[in-house]
Design a protein that fits this description.
3-stranded antiparallel beta sheet, 2 helices, single chain, mainly beta, 5-stranded antiparallel beta sheet
Length: 154
Amino acid sequence: MTDWTLSRDPQGPLILRTADGQQHAGVTPVRAFPLAAPDEGVSLVGSDGHERVWIEHLRDIPAEARALIEEELAPREFMPRIQRIDSVSTFATPSTWTVQTERGPAQLVLKAEEDIRRLGQGRLLILDSNGIQFIIEDQGALDRASRKILNRFL
């Protein structure tokens, strides 16, 4: 059980109440390892930039607090998941990729092959020229044509 509570101010910011009765308005959740271990190591940081609470595992906190944290993190961690690669403009970089994501079709511009990072266990992170990060959860699960295109860049 936690010795703190989390709620949302009517204007939107999160409010942390600690066991000693202190109230911290405008706390921000920050993941320590957003890609490698997204449900482990989350810090609640005060508006002054100092850590107020360290959460070892999100699963260990009450569902209501976990929902508030995940709701707060979602817009900042926008990362479309690529499900299929339809085409690329060229096999040299820069190239424009047409992909299908869980949110629908998208185009990204790959500036350099170094913008594709291996995360382990078949996961890939692709940074497009606009700074948006796309993720492939399991490159082995992609269809054959998508894997063939991807392998030309790896």
